[in-house]
Prior knowledge:
Layout: H1 9-13, H2 27-38, E1 46-54, H3 60-70, H4 76-91, E2 94-104, E3 107-113, E4 122-128, E5 131-136, E6 140-145, H5 156-170, E7 182-189, E8 192-198, E9 205-213, E10 218-227, E11 238-242, E12 245-247, E13 252-254, E14 257-261, E15 267-278, H6 284-287, E16 307-310, E17 317-321, E18 328-333, H7 334-341, H8 345-353, H9 358-369
Parallel strand pairs: 6-16
Antiparallel strand pairs: 1-2, 1-15, 2-3, 3-4, 4-5, 5-6, 7-8, 8-9, 9-10, 10-11, 11-14, 12-13, 14-15, 16-17, 17-18
Amino acid sequence: MVLSSRPAILACVLSVACGAAVAAPSIEDFERSWQAARGYEIPRGTSVVWSETTHARMTSEEIDAAIARLGAEPRETERAELEGQRWLANTGPSVSTYRLWYLSDRQFRINEDIPNAEWSPEIDAVVNGDEGWVYASDGSVSVMNFDRPPPGRNPRIHVQKIRGVVQELLASGMGFGSPKLEVRSFEITDDEWRAMLSLPETEVRFRLTGFYRAENAQFVVRTGLFAAPGHPETDGQSLEYSQHTYDPALERVVAGRFVHRDAGGRIVRTSDLTSIASFDPQTFGRIAAVPSPDREDPTRDGRRIKRIDDYRPATAVSTTLNPETGAVVSTEPLATAVNRRGSNLWRWAGWVILPVLVGAFVIVRMKRSV
């Protein structure tokens, strides 16, 4: 069911036309909903498909300067995002399609298709309890412990990706950004609510507009605007949520489209929801199985495995396979293999992290500089 941007139901909520008068939602109601959205989890056994288009927002010179400022600090997520920005600056906008099979933040599979990625047009990742793996379309598989990943392949990056689609589309903007944001004001007039949030001890303000759905007491965001005096990288950036529909499986309104614009009105990134469906959790074991030449991948056709790098400390071995027959060609200690061939791990991570929740990065970076 597609919802009007000015839902008629709100008139019923704020008047006696539907019977007994119903109190309009209060600032306390909004604040509780905001906090609840931050903790919203996709229901177990849910599959989500969406696409994202990401544009460069930094020049090559700005990227070099930002990397230099990081110095020797690990800050893996930021390094990955900067490498992603470098790729965008060199190649143009990236269009990615994602397919997610979700049980929890420690049990999921996410497939990413990036048609214009020169290194790996396909990147798949699985977290299954304490272990996980990633596949790149050069035929390489990396197996790892969740808490001890190799550089550039931290599975927590994918958890951030999931939180991004939750807050941008499934929660339609509620619970967005830094956990330190505080609700400062809220009012509802006619068919629209307005709210203002801020970061304590700063001049940062985040203004939201949206509508309220009475049937499930849900606040739905339509627009967001950052005001951050003294922080030009953030001040004036805007967020838009549209194409709202009610999803009966999730029992909530979701946004079909999210748009992030910079202060000049240029699009930084868009997200478009394609589908939401259920799957049998009992099938997850097959979906999450480590790729093997003697087993078909249930989510990909014609996959050929050339190499398996096992980063688990008890194994730490690299196995080269014949992609046509699956026969083992050679095995060697993992450290030897990695040192010999070098690594594209940061480039891989950059493509994964490109469209991770932009607003969270904006607010966290700005907070660090306050």
